[in-house]
Predict the 3D structure of the following.
Amino acid sequence: MASDARVLWSGEFIAGLVAEAAWRDKEALRLPCNVVDLAALGRKPTAGEGIGEAELRSGVRTRDLVRARRVFCQLAIKGVG
């Protein structure tokens, strides 16, 4: 019987939780069939801001660059999974 001292439910319920967690881990690590072009993705948050790709990759921490990097990361996570 599956059990966990932190959860006071039946073994069947806990087995379901473990299976769901394993499925979520598997889905999070799965890459889509179409590969995301990160260079093209990097141009999206910087298109209207006047920020170049080299600036996006730099370690400079100005407000505009930090905002553009945040948008880039959000798009990359949505694109890759």
User: Anything to note?
Assistant: Residues 19 and 63 are 42 Å apart (CA to CA).
